[in-house]
Amino acid sequence: MRALPAQVVDYLRDIITYAHAESITSQTSLSPFDLDELSNMLNVVEHVKDNIEKVNEHSVCIVARYMDMFFRAKFVNFCGQLGARLDADQSLYDSDSKNKPKPILVRILNVALFNSPHIHSESIHNVWVDNTVVKPRWKKFISQLNGEWSSFTVFSTVMLAVDVSFLAVPGVDDPSTQSKSAVTIVIYLSTLCAMGSLVISLVLAGQVSDSRRSSANSVANFMTSMSKSLLGIESLAFMLSLPFALLIWGMIFFAIGLSILIFYTTDIVAFIVVIPIWAVVVLLTTWPVFAANNFHVSAVAMRAVKYWKDITKHMVVIRRR
Hints:
Blueprint: H1 6-25, H2 35-48, H3 57-76, H4 104-112, H5 116-127, E1 128-129, E2 132-133, H6 135-167, H7 182-208, H8 216-227, H9 234-264, H10 268-292, H11 297-320
Antiparallel strand pairs: 1-2
């Protein structure tokens, strides 16, 4: 049985220390472990130092296992080569994958789902690089998704309660009449969207929390199977965006139903009072959406004014001629 060399232990400690420092200072660290794991590994190495130059099979196995993991990461990232990967989200085989134009179907679905698939697609491509899972990012990604789905579950439950209470209002859903009003139909759509968001959130949370997703190999197999679908890895982005998109559609349908009820059953005085408030609420609600997509009303208004001034100048020149 070999003794544990001091040089190897010091080298391993330096590797872990560098990976720890890189993870703190860089968002694209190539370390195969997160900060908590690296801290625990440093503590283990400090205990192993007590067995330096001694014959201890356990300490030798610990050092060998850690070295194997780090050198596997170096091999995958082509460390020391001309085409080495320098960032965790850098692709070595398909560097233009993020700049490729999306198919028209993907772009239409992205608009219908309120740009949520595009956001999830960027996160997935940062986790799944060259058919390799960036495990520290995967853990953060899953933790973020679980938090989102928990909140979507609460919001969907509240939305269901609101829709059912709205249908219970006298005159909204009259069971004695066979034909339903526009308000009732829109509230039905809102209820279905909220229920769909609730069910999908629970199903996705159950699938992600499966123990088979914990290891890197099982995650890689899962991502590989998803990439074989019709839309490729984008199908996973669409799947993850469904709870948010359906919840937003449920709120939109409820707002439409409430607006129809207000505008068709309100007298002229209440109508005059409600219209300005309704317009302000719609404007303030759509403002963050337009701003997030780099669409500013003030800039559009300034361009319209400038365009109008140019038109009037041309009209004056034509009249003088």
